[in-house]
Amino acid sequence: MTDGHLPYPFGHELTGYQVQDLGVTLKMARAAGVKVLSAPYKGRDRNTAIVEFPGGYIAEIHSLITHEAGH
């Protein structure tokens, strides 16, 4: 629970993007000058990171965690 105020960079993202592979996407993004503001973390159904593009645009990037049947 929070008091309604999230620590930076959370709550500052303008949009979110779903990608196939978060690790590969972040590697390519860093090479293009994107700064990772929040290291990747695992949620219940996705891996997520917060990034800042050159010029200050902040976005959330995530990839879904797939669960194979029987696992």
State the main characteristics.
single chain; about 70 residues; mainly beta; 4-stranded mixed β-sheet; 1 helix
Could you give the topology of this structure?
Blueprint: E1 15-18, H1 22-31, E2 35-42, E3 46-52, E4 58-64
Parallel strand pairs: 1-4
Antiparallel strand pairs: 2-3, 3-4
Structure description:
The protein is mainly beta. The chain has 1 helix and 4 strands, in the order E-H-E-E-E. A hairpin with a 5-residue loop joins strand 3 and strand 4 (58-64).
Number of strands: 4
Q: Which stretches are low in confidence, meaning pLDDT under 50 for 5 or more residues running?
A: none
Mean pLDDT: 84
**Main β-sheet, in a few words?**
4 strands, mixed
What portion of residues belong to β-strands? 35-45%
Strand order within the widest sheet? 1-4-3-2
Order of helices and strands: EHEEE
What's the end-to-end separation, in Å?
31 Å
Radius of gyration: 13 Å
Q: Structural class of the secondary elements?
A: mainly beta
Q: What is the molecular shape?
A: globular
